[in-house]
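Subject: RNA polymerase-associated protein RapA

B.,
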Amino acid sequence: MTASITDYHSQYLAWDLTRRCSSDDAERLASVVAGAQVDLNPHQVEAALFAFRSPLSKGALLADEVGLGKTIEAGLVLSQKWAERKRRILVIVPSNLRKQWHQELSEKFFLPSCILESRSYSDAVKKGNFKPFAVHDSIAICSYQFARSKASDVSAVQWDLVVIDEAHRLRNVYKPSNVIANTLKGALANAPKLLLTATPLQNSLLELYGLVSFIDEHAFGDVKSFREQFANVSQERVFQQLKERLKPICHRTLRRQVTSYVSYTRRLPLVEEFSPEEGEDRLYHLVSEYLQRDNLQGLPASQRSLMTLVLRKLLASSTFAIAGALGTLSRRLRAKLAKEAPAGPLEEELDSDYEALDETAEEWDEDEAAEPQLSDVDRIALEQEIADLESFAKLATSIDHNAKGKALLKALRVAFDKAAELGGAQKAVIFTESRRTQDYLVRLLADSPYAKGLVLFNGSNNDEGSKAIYAAWSERHAGTDHVTGSRTADMRSALVDYFRDEGSILIATEAGAEGINLQFCSLVVNYDLPWNPQRIEQRIGRCHRYGQKHDVVVVNFLNRKNEADQRVYQLLSEKFQLFEGVFGASDEVLGAIESGVDFEKRIAAIYQQCRKSEDIKTAFDQLQLELNFEISEAMTRTRRQLLENFDEEVREKLRVQNDASKAYLNRFEHQLMDITRHELAGHAEFIDDSSFRLRSCPYGNGNGIAIGLYELPRRSGDALLYRTGHPLAQQVLDRAKARDLPVAEIVFDYAAYGGLISILESLGGKSGWLRLSLFTVESLDQAEDHLILAGVTDDGRALQEDQLRRFFSLPARSAILPACLPVNPTELDRQTDECKSAIQRTISERNARFFEIEADKLEGWADDLKLGLERAIKEFDRQIKDARRAATSAASLEDKLATQRKIRALESQRNEKRRTLFDAQDQVDQQREALIVAIEGKLAQHASARQLFTVRWSMTGSTQEARE
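Prediction pasted inline below.
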């Protein structure tokens, strides 16, 4: 609508846009979606609404299949919490996903966040902040390991929400031996939690019990009663009972259920084999044998396994990578021989090349071991070890070219042809695990047909090319919200933008495997192949993700002379399905392993322990058998039946959600632009219904409002995203809501609307009175706002709410009425009071449903515990029966007497248990009642009302004029 609106329109629309909605209202998320740089998908809206649909909920498990955007779902929930000013939020993720979450929250949801790790934590404490987790102005992000190490700090904060990604890591929390999961469960016991995992159930129903109990300890009784009740889910009654109890807490949508609005592309694998030259092969065997020695001075005893892994990965990467590492080891040993302190820990020195070391070290969690003192005998061995390392390094530096490098040039030619055949752009991302290998690849490709458009991406990007790209990007986006102020984040954005617009090949270390989106590229080259399948999935997922329009070609290299490398590739390809098939098929089995790091350790152990070809074969055959058990088809079927709803049911629900969400979003965006056009009249040039150019700011300077182009949603790279969270929109809305509006006459111009509104047709030429009130109801620890419109015609006819809302769709003009004009409020008061009562009834009915769900849950929990108590008595009966049978068959008198004494002791214990059973059951009932009473206390409603304005209305323009 381009016609004019009044201050009264503006105030009504501003309150409508910012009012607080109930927890189960899809309209609640309209402002969040409109203010985010994400596409609206109904399954994501549905999952976000499910997460805390009930105000009594202690959390939810979002288990949508991989590729459906669980991060987006969590982002919607986080944005809503942030908008409600519930900002004590913690996000716990695997360490290698911290930066990705930081980037996604910033770029897609404009939410500030900070990564808490050892360094930033210590810096905060040094600055006098002794509670670094209690941040007020940003979302805290940390790894599982860091949260565990700071459990006391975590538990000291009263969190509004805790989000846990890759939550299948917690599924064995029911086992006391799982220290991390149990520590986190204790630290987060009172926090509302949102768990994200595509694989909530792999090998045992107890894993599902573990995840659900992590969220809500009252969802089921103890693990023994769960095992006894649900051991046989093949029985339909048992199966349905379990499914019903999971329903309020678990949500899962499948890829096949959303294909009507999300299209998926395939992964197509290409394998390039190569044979190392004699020098490379000799170097590999020399270093490999060195790493298998029992007594090594070059590697710290406390990190022997981790450092061995790193050296093996560098050895497999390139001769240039291992040459640097060998030089580092020999220098450190010479310092040790001279009794000089090394420059720093070996970990720090290797980290400059192998960038994944810091995160890998955090997850490997090796036991500390004391470093041995150097004896005279050891000095001789140390000198020999130094000589060996220096000879290895000399051999490595004598090798100018690597066979795998030559294979890369051939593979790129084939892969680019394949990508072109599939319609993809001539762009490739090459991943390596080593900075030195990255430098080698730059030299290699600089002398090839692929020299133009090379882009580097690593942890520092201090090379001259990256600096130039960053400087040009910063200048181009100066004064826009593209610039975050963080050089690291902005450098990443600059490099990705350059690669998209001008580059042809991005050569990335592990730093590029997280936090960047490369949907415009459909060729992924694993120059080095990690052993951690989750890292590989993360790499490929940079390109093969939502928004990719072409099939993605995935290139891997295979050393013909290395049997272990070939078997590793076979497992990653065939068992984990990483390189081919539909989007993210690998995630069906990724959760089967305890974690990618555990699998990496199992592979590393084979390389370290096996010296002969037959040993390697036997070890990998055994590992494959173990994976066959872990990745169980039977458990996959159970999971599908237990956690998934019928396709037709889900599709229909999502269709309705899609229609409703689009309608809410469309109305939201139109209302925001209508208010903005009215409030910024004279200060902005409006280009169309979704964009404008701000020429001057009516709200003064220094408030974060930039002059320039604004779009909703953002379509061009140079525009600012206009959203309710933007400082300009906040000023616009606050100004509209704060006006003290006197009684006025508003003339609504039906004819100027230019369309047909059937419910207003009969009001042409009529007049009357209209009132807008704000009614707020607080209950169940949440507040919701309702706008009540009351209206009447001069002939006494009461108007319906739908009619009154459509009044504000019409252009109008207003004039303030004389203060002495009498206003008869009787009918308006009656309508308003009637609406208040109806709203409170609706809220009561809805809360009653929430209460019933919670009461049923507590009833089930109490029954579970009672079953456990009764089970203990049955166990005594069984033992007594066994003892009596043993007494009958006892050969000697002594044995018979001993057995009788045992029987009497068991009977005494059983009788005591019987006497305490009723007391224990009463205690359980009392606990349940106490919980229910606590909930009932939250049901009370606290309501308040406020009149916003009263106007005299009239409507001009006949229906005939409107049609003409």
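Residues 742-964 form one domain.

T.
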